[in-house]
Amino acid sequence: MYPYEESPAADKTVLVIGAAGLDIVGRTIEMPEPKTSIPAKVRPSFGGVSRNVAENLAHLGLNVQLITAVGRDQFGWHLLEHAASAGVGIDFSIASEKRATASYLAVLDETGELNFAMYDMRVLETITPQYIKQNANLFAEAGLIFVDANLDEKTLKAIFTQARKAKIPVWADAASHKVAPRLVPFLDQIYLLNANAHEASVITDVEVLTEERDSAMQAARKLINKGVHTAIIPIAEFGVCYATQETSGHIPAMSTKIIDPTGAGDALTATLIYGYLNDIEMEEALRLGVSAAALTLRQPGTVVPDLSLEKIYDQLVI
User: Fold this and answer.
1) Domain containing 274: what range?
2) Which residues contact 160 (CB under 8 A, 6 or more apart)?
3) 20 to 30 A Cα–Cα from 143, which one of 16, 113, 219, 258?
4) What's the confidence (pLDDT) of residue 3?
């Protein structure tokens, strides 16, 4: 089922395909009231699941090529410029004249937990199956593909087809419970899937409760039964449950103050990719990923700007 190279190639490019955009996150200072404004701490930053993963990977020293789509607007140009300055390849990203750069608007409560969010990802429609086929050479040069479920099913199908031809693994993020079902037709082609409690619930029909480890383990094993090689289910402050075709387990969360939850799961995924490409055992890679997530949780923005393997290991011994 997984006819990939027996040993991962850390020197090959990680091809990241999916969402990038402008994040605006507000953290309330007092209880919200309907039909009025209240004081809050508001921060803008660049975000998007795939962009976050790509920047984290670049900080960890991997070769990264990002295929995303932005608008021909100020936010789009600055986003790509920022990605390039972090070491992310952007040569094959699209600047659309018809759509604005994607945006994500989130409201957090006073503890840092997400109350609700809105997003506009219509610009991703410009990443078409035809565009993926036109750039098939990128798959041949890559060692691993990462996608997020914000892409439409036809584009996802084209990505999985090219990955299968190139015999390289696809890692995926469910992105949100609204778009997570787009990955269902491809579960038996996914090497690693990161899906939080809400996302795993809609994919597996198992009610995953963040405070209940057993339900997360049940969902992870169900994903394995559906063909996923490795399933990762973060359950907020209760840590991460995981399952593979050989084993399963739980890694506890690190106690940390939550400034902003956005991007923590993407730091976890990026660290796991680093671990996979450098032959680090899964449980050790998960512990490093949980450490990277904790670092991300306690700073504003979606990516720790000076993330490094040394910083992640230092966090483990604090």
Assistant:
1) 13-168+254-316
2) 170, 186, 189
3) 219
4) 45
Give me the sign of the Cα torsion angle 94, 60, 25, 233: positive
Residue 173 is encoded by which pair of tokens?
Answer: 């993020």
Q: What is the pLDDT of residues 201-250, one digit of tens each?
A: 999 999 998 778 999 999 999 999 999 999 999 998 889 999 998 999 99
Q: Which residues contact 143 (CB under 8 A, 6 or more apart)?
A: 5, 8, 9, 10, 11, 12, 13, 14, 168, 277
pLDDT mean over 2-20:
76
d(CA 282, CA 143): 18
Task: Give pLDDT tens digits for 14-26.
Answer: 999 999 999 999 9
Q: Identify whether the C-beta of residue 49 lies closer than 8 Å to the C-beta of residue 19.
A: yes
- How many domains are contained in the chain? 1
Average pLDDT (64-71) is 98
Does residue 1 register a pLDDT over 50? Answer: no
The CATH number assigned to the domain holding 301 equals: 3.40.1190.20
Helix-strand-coil split of the chain, %, nearest 5? 40, 25, 35
Residue 187 lies in a domain: no
Q: How far apart are CA 287 and CA 293, in angstroms?
A: 10
The single residue listed with the structure tokens 């899964």 is: 282
